[in-house]
Design brief:
- This protein is an alpha/beta fold.
- The chain folds into three domains: about 5-130 and about 170-185, Rossmann fold; about 220-275, Roll (SH3 type barrels), CATH 2.30.30.280; about 280-355, Elongation Factor Tu (Ef-tu), domain 3, CATH 2.40.30.10.
- The protein is built from nine helices and 17 strands.
- A six-stranded antiparallel beta barrel has the order 12-15-14-13-16-17. The chain has a five-stranded parallel β-sheet with strand order 3-2-1-4-7, with helices on both faces.
- Strand 10 (about 255-260) and strand 11 (about 265-270) form a beta hairpin.
- Helix 1 packs parallel to helix 3 (about 55-65) and helix 1 (about 10-25) packs across helix 7.
- It starts with a strand and ends with a strand.
- Mean pLDDT is about 95; it is low at about 40-50.
- It binds adenosine-5'-triphosphate (ATP).
- Catalyzes the 2-thiolation of uridine at the wobble position (U34) of tRNA, leading to the formation of s(2)U34.
- It is found in: Cytoplasm.
- Its EC number is 2.8.1.13.
- Keywords: ATP-binding, Cytoplasm, Disulfide bond, Methyltransferase, Nucleotide-binding, RNA-binding, Transferase, tRNA processing, tRNA-binding.
């Protein structure tokens, strides 16, 4: 019988994933990862979703109920280096990081994946809402059945080797069905609320978090328009994101958006909505889900952010790992953000915006 290590956050999705796999006949092992414990205790106590002792106890209680082994692994060092430090450093460089993507790439599908394989597991599983289709030409990554919960965007960087040994059991159902199953199984996690956007920033205030970890980010400088005229003063480029309109403290009679961040000149550049929208985006670190870099231009739909709309586009490959994306509809992107290619329900791949 195949053995599967289920990454259990202590939330409802991964609890149900473990229950479903057990019932499908797998030998299931539950693993909770301790990822971050440096948050201040007040904010931390609000965060019942991830990495807390409560979450670990919930994951353990679910495993006990299901009669499967449970292990807790400490990956704080890896998480701090590969997710939190990356997150802060990207903002300091005027970029927009996505920590959930970094966590998937480095923590779940690298550190946990490699450990599970080294210990002889056949698969790892998570509670992500996305689907895998095993075909003769390889494993395809598809959107989750529940469009409102689809998490395929956060998995575009996976390789065939990882996909072949991954199971995503709850992507085939809606969130309502997952909750229903959790109640049926009598799991303590059945009524847990949805998790936070960023698990290590329970308050949601990323600026306060960056300020605390990198006090030197507080570094006032000019806010200028695209012709270089000064319109105001900013607190530090790390506290602004491309597309931001509110909180700029400038009045020019029309809505102005952050269109560029220049950490070298310590400058925030603002412009009109037209100046914000991009027609072309360059991507690096491009991954193709089928493992074959394209050489010819292809049409697809792109998502520029996790909960973003699909925008028709033409992708022009430049080399194996970089492309130029021609947007056929309105959209804007910040350097550092992931751009993911879709054809219908299938994820073709994606990359990181450099401009
Ligand atoms: N601390 C953790 N330990 C182990 N696995 C985790 C942890 N955090 C997240 N995961 C895994 O990653 C998946 C996606 O994480 P995300 O934070 O998006 O949770 P979610 O969609 O709210 O799911 P859940 O309800 O299981 O928390 C989880 O379903 C789980 O498999």
């Amino acid at each position: 019988m195949a053995t599967v290590v289920v990454a259990m956050s202590g939330g409802v999705d991964s609890s149900v994933a473990a229950a479903m796999l057990r019932d499908q006949g797998y030998d299931v092992i539950g693993v909770n990862l301790r990822l971050y414990s440096k948050e201040d205790s007040q904010a931390y106590s609000l965060n019942k979703q991830c990495c807390t002792l409560d979450s670990m106890r919930d994951a353990e209680a679910v495993c006990r109920k299901l009669g499967i082994p449970f292990y807790a692994l400490n990956m704080e060092r890896e998480f701090t280096r590969d997710v939190v430090d990356y997150f802060v450093s990207e903002y300091l460089q005027g970029k927009t990081p996505n920590p959930c993507l970094a966590c998937n790439a480095h923590i779940k599908f690298h550190h946990l994946f490699e450990r599970a394989m080294a210990l002889g597991a056949d698969y790892i599983a998570t509670g992500h809402y996305a689907r895998l289709r095993r075909t003769e030409s390889g494993v395809k990554l598809l959107t989750g059945v529940d469009a409102a919960k689809d998490q395929s965007y956060t998995l575009y960087m996976l390789s065939q080797r990882e996909l072949e040994r991954t199971l995503l059991p709850i992507g085939e159902q809606t969130k309502a069905e997952t909750r229903e199953l959790a109640r049926k199984y009598g799991l303590v996690t059945a009524n847990k609320p949805e998790s936070q956007d960023i698990c290590f920033i329970p308050s949601g205030d990323y600026r306060a978090f960056v300020r605390r970890l990198a006090p030197h980010a507080e570094s006032p400088g000019p806010i200028v328009d695209t012709s270089g005229r000064q319109l105001g003063v900013h607190h530090g480029v790390a506290f602004y994101t491309i597309g931001q309109r509110k909180g700029l403290g400038i009045t020019v009679g029309k809505p102005m958006y952050v269109v560029r961040l220049d950490p070298e000149k310590n400058m925030v550049v603002v412009g009109t909505k037209e100046e914000l929208s991009s027609r072309e985006i360059r991507l690096c670190d491009v991954n193709y889900i089928d493992g074959s870099p394209r050489t010819e231009a292809f049409e697809c739909e792109v998502k520029l952010r996790y909960r973003g709309a699909s925008i028709p586009a033409i992708v022009h490959p430049e080399d194996d790992r970089s492309v130029r994306v021609e947007l056929l509809g309105p959209g804007n992107v910040a350097p550092g953000q992931a751009v993911v290619f879709y054809q219908g329900e299938e994820v073709l791949g994606g990359g990181k915006a450099t401009s």
